[in-house]
Design a protein that fits this description.
By secondary structure, the chain is α/β, with parallel strands linked by helices. The protein folds into two domains: 179 residues, Bordetella uptake gene, domain 1 (D-Maltodextrin-Binding Protein, domain 2, 3-Layer(aba) Sandwich), CATH 3.40.190; 117 residues, Periplasmic binding protein-like II (D-Maltodextrin-Binding Protein, domain 2). The chain contains ten helices and ten strands. Strands 1, 2, 3, 4, 5, 6, 7, 8, 9 and 10 form a ten-stranded mixed beta sheet that branches. Helix 1 packs across helix 8, helix 3 crosses helix 10 and helix 5 crosses helix 10. The longest helix is centred in the C-terminal third of the chain and has 22 residues. The two termini are 25 Å apart. The N terminus is likely disordered.
């Protein structure tokens, strides 16, 4: 049986009260920090990384140099980060895909649990499930019933095999005892386009890829994969509300460094990141794209990451997904 849930909201409401180690270094940093984002400019990871580092610069006067190092679903950037000196002056942004899912899908040159120092989870963003406005499937329950009546007959569009979007629905299929007809696309845009055109029964994707089309009426949202309803789509129920208690899946983003970072440097970095995440403008910026601020301590992130790696490995195995 697949692991049903993990607790991701470990500090959402209490970022400012995080108990961090007392060994924070008063003289760190003394120069600019290279911040590696393992995807191209303009995407969700780039937005998250730049939003947090810019706010830290405003609050503390630290200098950051953004390094967009894309390739292999984020593996190129994280491989580079894993080889850097552990001095606090090279950090990076990891996420569900390259830290928790990819290790179960392909051979990597890094181990997410031993080659990085966990610092802070930045935010969490659920997936949204949507259908054509004229779809006969009134809600998620109807969609599941249709798949149960016709195994492999209900078509699901995703941004690609092995993505969080894809695996979030494979998790649901496992729990519901059903089978989707998975149609992977080379990205969210063509998947959404075909859903709006009625070429597929439903599409699942990140909120930024789905949200504008639900608001315009081009798609009809039927579920979100977060534990609670999304403030961006408050009228759309969660998957859990359809009888799958504890269900949650989504894309989290987090700051990591090379393995072996000094505890005092880690504490200083975590304190600065949490201060930025508590800023109203940062919270609003993330909420505008359907993401929720998380925050918390490095210890909480380390425990969370360990659970996420195990959980997504189970989901990948149960779904029979490969990197091909």
């Amino acid at each position: 049986m697949i692991i049903m849930t993990t607790t991701w909201r470990f500090a959402t409401a209490a970022i400012l009260s995080v108990g961090l180690p007392t060994a924070a270094l008063a003289d760190f940093p003394t120069r600019g920090i290279e911040f590696m984002i393992p995807f191209n400019p303009g995407g969700g990871s780039d937005f998250a990384g730049r939003t947090v580092t810019q706010k830290i610069s405003e609050l503390r006067g630290w200098d950051f140099v953004i390094d967009n190092r894309a390739g292999a679903g984020g593996a190129v950037g994280l491989t580079h980060l894993s080889t850097q000196t552990a001095d606090g002056y090279t950090l990076g942004l990891g996420q569900t895909s390259n830290l928790a899912i990819n290790p179960a899908l392909r051979d990597l040159e890094y181990d997410p649990l031993t080659d990085f120092t966990p610092i802070v989870v930045v935010n969490f963003q659920p997936m949204a499930v949507a259908v054509h406005p004229d779809s006969p499937h009134e809600d998620l329950a109807a969609l599941i019933d249709a798949a149960r009546a016709d195994p492999g007959g209900v078509s699901m569009a995703t941004p690609g095999a092995g993505t969080v979007s894809h695996l979030s629905m494979e998790l649901l299929a496992n729990l519901a005892g059903i089978e989707w007809l998975h149609i992977p696309y080379p990205g969210a845009s063509p998947a959404v386009t075909d859903a709006m055109g009625g070429q597929v029964d439903f599409v699942v994707g990140t909120l930024p890829s789905i949200l504008p089309h639900v608001r315009s009426g081009a798609l009809r949202g039927i579920a979100v994969t977060s534990p609670e309803r999304s403030p961006a789509l408050p009228d759309i129920p969660t998957v859990a509300e359809f009888g799958y208690d504890g269900y949650e899946a989504g894309d989290w983003k987090a700051v990591v460094g090379p393995a072996g970072l000094d505890a005092g440097i880690v504490a200083t970095l975590a304190d600065a990141i949490n201060e930025a995440l508590a800023d109203d403008a940062v919270i609003a910026a993330f909420e505008s794209e359907g993401a929720t601020v998380v925050g918390g301590s490095p210890e909480e992130f380390a425990a969370y990451l360990e659970g996420q790696v195990a959980r997504w490995a189970e989901i990948v195995e149960a779904a029979g997904v490969s990197a091909d």
